[in-house]
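Late entry, evening session. Most of the bench is empty. Finally got around to the prediction I had been postponing all week. Sequence below, unchanged from the version circulated by S.P.
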Amino acid sequence: MNPVLRGNWNYPTTIWAGPGRIAELAEACARAGIRRPLLVTDEGLTGAPMISNALAALAGAALFGAVRGNPALSHVEAGLLAYRTGGHDGVVAFGGGSALDVGKVVAFMSGQARPLWDFEDIGDWWTRANVDGIVPVVAVPTTAGTGSEVGRAGVVTDEARRIKKIIFHPRMMAKVAICDPALSAGMPPVITAGTGMDAFAHCLEAYCAPGYHPLADGIAVEGMRLVMDNLTRAVRDGGDLEARAHMMAAALMGATAFQKGLGAIHALSHPVGALYDTHHGLTNAVFLPYVLVFNRKAVEERIRRLAAYLGLRASFRAFLDMVLELRAATAVPHTLVGLGIGDDEIDRIVAMATRDPTAGGNPVTLDRRAARTIFRRALEGRL
């Protein structure tokens, strides 16, 4: 492992990156002022050695491991019950994006009197929160995709209405994120591919979002290079720690960059995930080229510059071909049919997509006609 692939960063989350950094978990909790943490993790990780080792390193810690993919209100409510009855004073969010989101939302809601949906990312609803009721979080990702470890929000499904909602507050940001690529070693290829393409989608949508934010643009561009150069390696060899370190960095960069905005990829992916329980990253990966082509007139010049930076021919087509080749090399389905999706919910998906908070960041207005067009193309494989 290249010793350069280790560092302490602040963007603005404090990030401890590099192989072996999980050994510093107790120090991170102490720095965050956490003495009795609730460790929130994915259902599939509860028996893993990395979780038992973490619990052994944290005096007074307890485990909550009832988080599944596409986290829902019921997961948050169960986590809150465990937090409050256990007398905890902070959260260690440990796992994939779902566990990180639930952990952050539990920490945020631990001292709130209002219901969760009162803090949906609408206007200034975040100002309703009692900031003294938000406890600290240490985030430990085991995948490289969502970048939730550096985010200020959590995505939670409203099970009653089958809608994904974004809960936002600036104080939801983790005090420390430990990004140890060894924790993602051996991750199944399909999850490596899906999470990696999620990071790529974050970077691409942030880069294409309208508005002036050169800091986000620069981070997004380098994030896409890291995915292009390392995702296939990580999928083919679960033990390639160098590739996995670069992918963890790309995930951080995507989530840092998308403060500028997201777009139609996420606006369509959110309702599909809520209705069909598909993997978020894989769903983004399927929609990605169809949204890119739909937005072409608005982003072509920016994509030409991006292609040149990536070492490709400076053209929109060269970048699109690279995306398609990357998807094929990592076994991402080319159409929604490959995810088991049909057109039975198309009207509902179109309506939900246009109302999704991410829709406003698309460089072309995402009205119902646009959403329907993109969905149809992704269903039928028409670019």
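Two things to note before I forget:
The longest helix spans residues 214-236.
The radius of gyration is 20 Å.
Will write this up properly tomorrow.
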